[in-house]
Amino acid sequence: PASTYLPVPPVKLEDHTRSARQSLVGLPVPEIPDGIEGCIGNTPLFKIKSLSEATGCVILAKAEFLNGAGGSPKDRVALNMIKMAEEEGFLTPGQGDTIYEGTVGSTGISLATLARAKGYKAYICMPNDQSTEKSDLLHHLGATVERVTPAPITSTEHFVNLARTRAKEHTLSGKDESKGFFADQFESMANYRAHFQTTGPEIYEQTGGHIDAFVAGAGTGGTISGIALFLKQEMGMGKDLKVFLADPEGSGLYNKVKHGVMFSNTEKEGTRRRQQVDTIVEGIGINRLTENFEAGRELIDDAVKVTDLQALKMARWLVEEDGIFVGSSSAVNCVAAVAAALKMPKGSRVVTILCDSGTRHLSKFWKKVGETGLEDHEQADLIGFLGLKP
Ligand code: PMP
């Protein structure tokens, strides 16, 4: 509505800011975000040139690492979970309430950031095999971090179960009036709804609804479910849009999508449940079915298994060819986007997600990229470099 726009100020021609240019041509000037939470969402979508050239398709990336609070799609989820908790009376700002969460990092970072902005404390339980950049960042954001040895989901020591227990202990302690709120990203419907309400509509708008395939990995499953639900159900793209799951080594989701079972004959259930998944990739791949994955599972048409080596190669390719410096889950998504493009008619538009920046993965994933001694990819085409058959 017109009333929400700022009055158009006089503009000097030499002023090249976006607002000045917009008001010059009579376009509404966007409102200035009120605090860091106003910088969440509305991320750019851009074409990855090298992947598009190599596949003959148009590979588009939703730059979710540019979310302005915690730098990942989890900003949207964290904001929505906090909003829901406030509405339902589980959190009240300025009362010493604490947000508890089990996370491999990104959700914790988004929650800890928003906790600071909104007057809460954050208590994060995360496995100790994730990159130290993420736990260091959490410390500096003022969160309490409990790093735990990876354990099966059936164990009380699993990072998610521990976070739930800590929240309960807080509330039951009765020391003061403050509350402990377990955010529960894996099972909370506020997770996929954040993507259903924001990321999905943004992708639709940014592409004019011209999308042939959508490719994403799943940790909680909130991203793939929320976006697939919006595009397929709300936009009526059901038959035309192909949704691909990108799945790293050791994850059971590929088999669930392809064969209807979590484990193949070659994978022993007991050993695979030892930790989240056996891969260098952080944030995606899991060996259980979460509520958020289930919310959109029937809308997933196909799955692509991505090896750690392919992810490492893709990460290096993207930085060398396109100047795109991303983390491991984004690299997996891009490998799967290329594999998906090879299954699609030439010229198809394939959308995927760049989840977080490589700066969060310097000590582990990017160190490995450096150590892997990859052959000079200039001598290979992308498809050959990745070992993908056309
Ligand atoms: N990438 C990164 C870096 C993540 O931390 C996560 C979430 N764990 C994902 C991707 C996957 O997103 P989702 O939980 O929505 O499936």
UniProtKB/TrEMBL annotation:
It comes from the Eukaryota. Residues 37-356 form the Tryptophan synthase beta chain-like PALP domain. One of its GO terms (cellular component) is mitochondrial outer membrane. Keywords: Membrane, Mitochondrion, Mitochondrion outer membrane, Transferase, Transmembrane, Transmembrane helix. SUPFAM superfamilies: Tryptophan synthase beta subunit-like PLP-dependent enzymes. Its EC number is 2.5.1.47. Belongs to the cysteine synthase/cystathionine beta-synthase family. This is Cysteine synthase 2. It comes from Cudoniella acicularis.
